[in-house]
## 1
Amino acid sequence: MGTVTPRSVLRYETWTLQPDREPDAEPVHYAMQCAVDGETSPTSEDFAEPQDWVLRHCGQNPSHHTYLEIITRPWRTWRQT
């Protein structure tokens, strides 16, 4: 049959995943989305702005009671040695 040679080498490594809190990390952004009509607040680094949007939106649309919170948070990985 001939000589068998390996075609690939597998190496198992341990990786870590966590929110990126480094000084140069992208900021966390918040937004809210109305589950009734799909309208979305402006995105902001300050959660108070999307909250204010929800209160204005439900004031203008009294039957809109359900909202989704949208958070964009930077994450980072690294290989443990």
Note: Helices lie at 48-60.
## 2
Amino acid sequence: MSFIDDDRPQKKAVHEIGADLSMLSVDELKARVELLKAEIARLEAEATRKASGRQAAESFFRS
């Protein structure tokens, strides 16, 4: 049993669209799902923010 491995920095989970998933464990797959859900939420929030800014600008220039 090696305790040296425990001191190594953990590699940040990264997902590449279309990557081979066959070698991943169930826990790794679940971690990627959570990572992607968080990224989707971040993208949706940014799209909402930009849409509201655009609506405000369009409303301002229509007046």
Note: Helices lie at 26-62.
## 3
Amino acid sequence: MQFPDDENGQLLAEIAAAGVDLSKMQQIDFFILFEQQADADKFAKDIVSDALVQTADVEKCKDTGVWEVITHVQMVPEHTLLGQAEQYLESIANGYNGYGDGWGLMDKDAA
């Protein structure tokens, strides 16, 4: 399987090499960062009303002290769709003083 030569493509290649079937629906976690807890809480509350996002969790990053909203999206992890979802969520987060920090795929065995 070939992947574009960019950050998302490299991550997809690593996930595929780990044995994840990228043709099936997966839970993709998109990470959005906020300096203020109030902004993170409001974004998390509002974003779950969006059809794309199933749930969202707010956590404080132990290392940096910033607030992180982890949005959970069920989708087939296809390169173009991932980029579009990432841009879409970040465009909404910008209105809440947030910014995107990438995505990840939860290993079902590690959950």
Note: The beta strands are 26-34, 55-60, 67-75, 98-105.
## 4
Amino acid sequence: MPMTYLKTAPGQPPQTAADVADTVQVMLARLRKGGAQVALEYARSLDGWQGEITVTRSQIAAATARVPQALKDDIDWAHDNISRFAEAQRATAQDMQIEVRPGLIAGQRQIPLGAAGCYVPGGRYSHIASALMSIATARVAGVADITACSPPCAGAGIPDAMLYAMDLAGATRILTIGGVQGIAALAFGLFGAPPADILVGPGNAYVAEAKRQLFGPIGIDMFAGPTDSLILADDTADAETVAADLVGQAEHGANSPVWLATTDPALAEAVLDRIPALITDLPEPNRSAAATAWADLGEVVLCDTPEDMAGFADQKAPEHLHVQARDLDWWRTRLRAYGSLFLGEKTTVAFGDKAAGPNHVLPTSGAARYTGGLSVHKFLKTVTWQEVDDRALPDLARVTASLSRAERMEGHARTADIRLAQATPEAQAIPSAG
């Protein structure tokens, strides 16, 4: 796969992953033992939050009243898109049954989880869309109890618009708490919440590590790292648009890589020329985040053919994959490793991040090679069942006993023998189907 790197990524200093893991392990041990009191201590010391953790209905009503109607209308519009897409996904997850052989019936059921914990990140940005993506999707899936939490913003609690979105999306309760202590509140069932069956939602390195350490007895959506984006473009693409799309994703954070692969040298050079000015034009802290991400992690790769670009994309397995090239149908069917795919110059990753409908909680760091993003399916258990009658019993018992003894599992074989012995004489006399 011939490629020429016009800009390489020098990378960043090694992350202190071991330090983060150790810190989280200690915090979770304290939180598991001390419960809500320890979580409250962390909220006071780490977030500076002196208020109550559980948001009351009157506080939600007051926050809703303060949100401008135009913004509420926009949040409603995005919520409608996200819910409608989730409902269409839910319709694809069906109960079913099949008669595998005469007398042997098997099936599956789709059972919603009982309780979900949705983490909505705060801090530098107010992630209104993340509230909709996780909470509304859980609600559409049929989860009965949904606890949402988010860190307070500058000592003022959860921003009004986020509270409105969390309530609109269907949160059973909302907690003003973030970080490891917020994840623990969801996982351990603190502040009146039931213990979560699954933890979902993006967060910083400490949040991600807390989810990783809790995974097993509790489900999680995915192991998530910094967001990443790849654009595939040919000579039909507009350099200003491509550069703006790359910068728009780089502003997520200093550790958020963005990549461009193209077959057009002129486009590549134009994008490289334009990006510095677009970054400079951003406000802070977006400017510094995008500048560091581009300098340390940004790449521009020149490929010989569209197939080479597709191969590069399959290797990267990006969270967001944006195609700005001719023959979009070919790309849609050819590409096979991405969190979410954005087709055409009229589309932008920001549409998916905020309001288009498909979920924006997506696999990062190459995880798209083996998993997709958050969906209603994450909140459903696909369980199976089976039932047998005398028509299938002789062969089923015989084969089960045979395979069990071949595996030296005599106890298994005897449970099959018992069923055959208990069968009616008519069933025992049915000749083997071979």
Note: The longest strand covers residues 104-112.
